[in-house]
């Protein structure tokens, strides 16, 4: 401001209004060029917000943004509020222009997203992506390419929609030791489980309703089989534990086999069933290993995650110094995801304006991921057994032989005409491998007609 | 890695382990020098964590940190696990050394903290502080000094302890329009109100218990009169609305006048009483103004903030695109606050290593703060009135004359021997100024013996 005060306007000159007035660098007129790849639910919201709030973006970044092109699969589709001259089906040419500063990828899936991002980086653009599947599969390639090109790769929108969770893990908690991350990170399955719990709907009907409402896709595999949540768990585990974790390293069980009887069992225990993404560090210091898993689990009704309903997401983070933190908000949808994308865009644009980069990947700890067999949790088992003397003893003996300690064992249904009884067993924490061996042995016992369900119990 | 492969060790050379292996810049040996100002509950935890996790800090920053001195008021006090050679009572000399890269201020209060921070910046150090009172009073001076010196000023620990809230507001949501922030940001008052609600304890006894347990200070004014929460509200409002808001601009009411009868009234309504910090934007675009206030309020028992107990904090953020987000965690304490301080320290150290700075202050919107009189909320009033015909009509008339619309009006206690009745009135949303005028008029009504309490109702 000293120079302004000495300008020809004299010492009483009124300071320039706007950003310059609070000591920040005045906006350079040269805009930063932005290319948008994909214009579906998220992309069209991003494009509209870039136009609607252009002045705010300029003030917050210190330079204007200019949307120079939108790569789409099909030309000629009208998007209200978006200049149709921006659309191009030659997305490859868009990322090869060489004058693009910032690329936003909201196409999803592995290809062509991966090639486009790599090409964009080679041509000097920083990238903001919402693509969890790609990051979980090929994060290593992308981060290396960003490093080699000296550009940023940001991805807040890839996990838990609008909820700020990447930046808190990558930056806010970077002076602490995170020990566990546990969350509901898939809204589709959460909606289905909610329906099953609240209205007693069966899985198939709940899925059909989710599809009718647009919460589930025609092919729901990625959601209901846990692939989407596993990709997010891989990203969270990698960030939390300064290691590389790929989607395929995450143990994954979906919700397609959850029955009304499982839900009823959970209710009888004062629990709800949720699809959880869990990342934990086991052991201390250099010996510590990671477990990352996605599976349905029973959690107590008074657990904070139990009340996370519908399409909402929530993530718990536990660390040595900070203790227990929770982050909650809309987990998907055009506007919330666009909010996360644009938060990253401003950060990356600020970095570019200052000729610098964000923190990048941190994988120095290189902790291995251990197998699901080593994971220790509690289990809830439901068994159909003979209703006669000695059966309970045989079953208890089977658990003891496999070193699975039983917390409660109770008969929940009166025997039918056929002399059957239903037993519910809740174990103390046990190794997954031990429990699996125990379940196989139970299946062999003549007194056991069927092992109806086995589900983990978390959050006790 | 190409160069390594061509090194004399031959093409089969094993890649170098550690950070260099994932393509990051190998750590420069020259450490970044850190000075710590204050060694109380937070400071001693920071000092210990810096030593205990030194290798992790080096890997995460890319350069080692070296704690070069700890400024304390009294020498000779032993702090377990901290090298006593680091202590100095000449804190001024510590920040004048000129070779210090990073200064952590956890002294608290206005002076000497302010002068020490300004001196440290003038001598080229970036600063991390947990000092909400100072930021709320003299933030402008500090941010200008940081800008002039080209250094960073980070302050995640100043609001809501370990909960990442500053970075989400300053960075994650910077592409969105935040419309409201509402939170429980003072653990001491939350503990006291919890006691009053849960155990029916009176204010004085609940305060004494908080003091005995170390949750409240001997002089509890800053907490119970809402000064601490008001400073935090000022910081949150400034960040959320890209404006400057000072602590004195925040309307402030403490909890010292909350009675058992207020708590009972809240319970009767299915509510709890919480001390809330609220920052809202009223109006649209360039015309929008800010209101920032701290006061006790009744909120419904099923509101997520209602179950935030004891020394925990929680902050709700509402924005146009992201919707409703919540952040929850420990609001104070040595370790949680140290976690936030050290997250900032790593970020600031990374910036310094890359010769860059973080986003700095964003106050371009320069929105004015409007007075409490303009704020629109619901109110709960408790009145002692004559128990005779015509009284209800007179009271209803008084509300109508002041344009305060009544939602419910009910008699809660049977009349005593003296012909008195107690009335509870809950209003529809009304302007604070209108309500205040109405309360003055009610006080003048011959039929009204006393206005027992007036409390805002939020979160309906």
From TrEMBL, chains A, B:
Pathway field: Amino-acid biosynthesis; L-threonine biosynthesis; L-threonine from L-aspartate: step 3/5; Amino-acid biosynthesis; L-methionine biosynthesis via de novo pathway; L-homoserine from L-aspartate: step 3/3
Superkingdom: Bacteria
Binding site for NADP(+): 37-44
Signal peptide interval: none
GO molecular function, one term: NADP binding
BP term (GO), one: threonine biosynthetic process
Record field: compositional bias (Low complexity): 8-27
CDD domains registered for this protein in UniProt: ACT_HSDH-Hom
Binding-site residues for NADPH, renumbered to this chain: 132
One Pfam family cited in the UniProt record for this chain: Homoserine_dh
Needed co-factor(s): a metal cation
InterPro entries: ACT-like_dom_sf (IPR045865), ACT_dom (IPR002912), Asp/hSer_DH_NAD-bd (IPR005106), HDH (IPR016204), HDH_cat (IPR001342), HDH_CS (IPR019811), NAD(P)-bd_dom_sf (IPR036291)
Record keywords: Amino-acid biosynthesis, Methionine biosynthesis, NADP, Oxidoreductase, Sodium, Threonine biosynthesis
Active site positions: 232 (proton donor)
Catalytic reactions on record: L-homoserine + NADP(+) = L-aspartate 4-semialdehyde + NADPH + H(+); L-homoserine + NAD(+) = L-aspartate 4-semialdehyde + NADH + H(+)
UniProt-annotated binding residues for L-homoserine: 217
Enzyme class: oxidoreductase
Entry EC no(s): 1.1.1.3
UniProt region (Disordered), positions on chain: 1-27
Residue intervals of the ACT domain: 380-456
Presence of keyword Glycoprotein: no
UniProt function note: Catalyzes the conversion of L-aspartate-beta-semialdehyde (L-Asa) to L-homoserine (L-Hse), the third step in the biosynthesis of threonine and methionine from aspartate.
NCBIfam families, sorted: PRK06349.1
Protein family: Belongs to the homoserine dehydrogenase family.
Protein name: Homoserine dehydrogenase
Organism: Naumannella halotolerans
Taxonomic lineage of the native organism: Bacteria, Bacillati, Actinomycetota, Actinomycetes, Propionibacteriales
